[in-house]
Amino acid sequence: MPEKILVVDDEKEICKLCQRVLTESGYSVLTAGDYNEAIKILKKERFDLVLTDLRLDGHSGLDILSNIKERYPLTSVIIMSAYASVESAIEALRKGCYDYLLKPFDIDELVFTVKRCIQHQRAEQEVTLFKETSYIYQFAQEISKTGDEETLLRLILKSALLISKADSGSILVYDDSTETLELKVSIGLDENITKIMKVGERIAGYVVKRKEALILENGLKKYPEFSHVPSRDDITCSICMPVMLQDKVIGVLCLNKQNVKYYIFSEHEEKILNVFCSHASLVIQAFRVNKELNELDKLKNQFIANVSHELRTPLMSISGAVELLESSMPDGSKQLIELISRNTQRMTKLVGELLDFSKLETGVFKYCFMEESLQKLLNDIVKDFEKPFHDKNIELTASIPGTLPPVKIDKSRINQAISNLMSNALKFTEPNSRVKLTAKKSKGEIVISVEDTGIGIDKEHLGRIFDRFYQVDGSITRERSGVGIGLAISKKIIEDHKGRIWAESESNKGSKFYITLPI
Amino acid sequence: MADKKKSQILVVDDEPDVVLILSEFLRKEGFKVYTAHNGQQAIDKIKEFPIDLVLLDLAMPQMDGIQVLKELKKINPRIEVMIITAYRDAEKVVESFRLGAFDCLFKPFNLKYLRKSIFAKLVE
Question: What is the pTM of this model?
Answer without folding.
Answer: 0.53
